[in-house]
Amino acid sequence: MVNSFTWMIGGPQGSGINSVAENFAKACIRGGLHVFANIEYHSNIKGEHSYYRLRVDSREPRSHVDWVDLLVALDRETMFGDLNKVHPTHRGHRHEVSPGGGIIYDSSLKLQPESFGRDDIKLFPVPYMDLLIDALKEFGKDKELSKYQVMVNTIALGASIGLVDYDFDLATEAIKEGFTGRKAALGDLNISAARHGYDYAKKMFGQNAFPIRLRKQPLGAKRMMIRGVQSIAIGKLKAGCGFQTYYPITPATDESEYLESHQPDYNMIVVQAEDEISAINMATGAAHAGLRSSTSTSGPGFSLMAEGLGWAGITEAPGPVIILWQRAGPATGLPTRTEQADLRFALHAAHGEFPRIIIAPGDVAECFYDTFDAFNYAERYQVPVIILADKFLASTYKDIPLFNTDGMKVDRGDLVQEEDLAKSPDYKRYQFTELGISPRARPGLKGGVFWTTGDEHDEYGHITEAADLRVRMMKKRMNKVELAGQVIPNSKKATLHGPTSAPITLVGWGSTKGAILDGMEDLRADGIETNFLQIRYVNPFPTDFVQKVLSSSRLTVAVENNYSGQMAGLIRERTGIAINSKVVKFDGRPFSQNEVYEGVRDAVRDGAKEVTLSHA
Amino acid sequence: MLELKNYRTQVHNDWCPGCGDFGIVNAIQMTFLEMQLEPHRIGLFSGIGCSGKTPHFVNAYGFHTLHGRVLPIATGAKLANPSLTVIAVGGDGDGLGIGAGHFVNTGRRNLDFTYVLHDNGVYGLTKGQASPTLPKGLKTKSMPAPSIVEGINPIAMAIASGYTFVARSYALDVRHLKATLRAAIEHRGSAFVDVLQTCPTYNDINTKEWYAGDDLPSKAPRLYKLEETGYDGKVADPTVRDETNSKKGNALLKSFEWGEKIPIGVFFKMEVATFEDQLANRMPALKEKPFVEHDIYSRDISPLLDELA
User: Fold this and answer.
1) pTM over 0.80
2) Which residues of A touch B302 (CB under 8 A)?
3) Which one, A147, B124, B128, B157, has least CB within 10 Å?
4) Range of the domain at A587
5) Of the partner residues A224, A240, A451, the one whose CB lies closest to the CB of residue B64
6) Boundary residue ending a domain (A172, A205, A238)
7) pLDDT digits (tens, 9 = 90+) for A236-257
8) Do A375 and A422 reside in the same domain of the chain?
9) CA distance B282 to chain A (A)
């Protein structure tokens, strides 16, 4: 078989599996192949088991699968799990190796082939340490073995490339890029390590030891390897965001760190706040002051932000844009694992009623485009905008074409200038207007002095408790979501993927998009024809479109990474339509392609109202 | 020439007669007048409580924020537009109870702004509960029993947190308060002013008469001015660690003086790089003009994409 391959590297946290997997992925992309790479890790700094899965294909994979063709084990636990522990978390990945697949492991473990309990897979023992010492010798560094021990991961990468017979130069190139400047010498050391692994595999296991081959394909247009945190960060930079706040939290922090590292080139203030309460309020203060602003967090932080969100709402702040990187809750939950259980929370966080816009991008590309739009809406409608992403999107790498920024335009809404203010004295920040949106000044502008308060207020922004004003101000604010709903095209709010005539409609939102799209192909191959309604705007909700699609479907199945089927509930609330069955997963792990297939198949064939999946 | 009326609004003031807040808002307006600050160059921020209403009575950009959150919101606005004169006001419960974390961390940043604490020992608007600054053992009018927890020392806390200008004044001595506020606003860095304030409705202990020393055998006022005693809290050279430490130590000692004699005036002052200065070192464009006036809306992201390709 050629160019359809899933590789996995596992080891204790701190063993550098990320960089090795990303180098392999990069080498594949440079050879015209496509990748989908996701990581699972514990809430731990060093020692606990983590693994990185890399799927490579000639066509763009949009999800992962639950099997592994070639497993690289940096330790014993990767193969056999932690069953010796009082509370084991996994039984090892040897069970996931596909029939005919193989395992690369450290020969010094001296494992008996029988101990794997698999006679349908191939074993590739590699003397990690001996090869590393050989590699170090070339640089006279073999006396410093302990310092370079982590490089056994690169030995294993080299061996993997040898087994799938891929172009070694592409790997060299990828490794080199990771070590520039002062670290360049380290790059050469790593290349040598990879070479030793590669040569060993070729020599010891022979040309045809492994059934899957990777072959270069002609290169098309330039592609990048990107994950959600980068996509959203770049979306913010493109949108002219000038202020980002955060409090350290998994999995959101990578986004802020990415922005902070690019601060000098893009003139953006990044502030690490004392807590998320401060983070959202700083961002709202900056938005009121006229700077596009944003904050980024996950569920526990967003819980603290509820109060500030309400203040942004009632004061009609032009932002912030809040990125909610969902993870498995409640409380600390599974802090490094994924979930889509904050849909309802995002919709209703904070006391009282106020407008908010909520967008749920489905993949890394949508992360970029939706983030850009979010800033325009925040300023145009003077509302907080929430982007609902999750840990899976945050940390999953994909290769995609470079973003197309043609026609992307910053729209700052009705932001008045001093000339406008000079022409019309008696400026009122909360003026009732025909459209329902008040012209917005910013502190510093002459003639624009305004007051703003979290109390109910009059047009000037002064406190009122008058009943009639309260009613008018509530209507003014609440109407803004409706207005946004009329202006934002349906094509952005929801998409029907696949044949419109399909009798079965899968419904999903956010990061399940890829697995659903890939799973649909397996379903079709099995004679189950489906289409997929992807809901991207939670608020304003595309009620008419959803109603139209679902009412012409014979069977509807919601696929959600949560316990209760929150989107299914929202659909019922907005359209009155009850989704027929739910395929849910709430074990903190993302849906794979085969899970979507199996879950939907069972729901369709058995008519199950609810299917709960857990493969991990 | 700006006049006092340029800093006033027509908003109805519903503070209790005799409230210390009047002294504070008057002093704020008089300071603006004296400094001839243009109203549109000022951002006045408040928390929640009686003092929270302050911005509504002042003609300047006014932000009446959330309980305890005045400092983060003021920080965001100041960073977006460092050319504004930013003043934050709030009660002692607001700043040292619900907002204590923000109080500490704002001090650490040394942002160039002024924070005025309305310090009257009670939560007025919720009808007289003990606030964090009420000393242990005291029972004000509406409390069911005396407080059994220690009061916070705001001056000591400000010095420990990193505020680079720390002073105390008195709401009923508008002249002293005005001079202190001006010094605070003119200070480059985070300035904290603890304003002792009477609450005629709920604090029946720390009254105007109490501050005047009417209950003391000497009948001498409790408040005395630090500067009249030869005390000098200013660090001449912040690069000299010993001097900085000893000035901080002196200020801490002074801050615990409470009872028959209560010092007011500047406890501590030191000029070092502000948060904005340090950001401008990272991003020189900030030195030219605030980011709200920069065109950051046509950024070229292609280098970032190439980096990932």
Assistant:
1) yes
2) 402
3) A147
4) 492-612
5) A451
6) A205
7) 999 999 999 999 999 999 999 9
8) no
9) 6
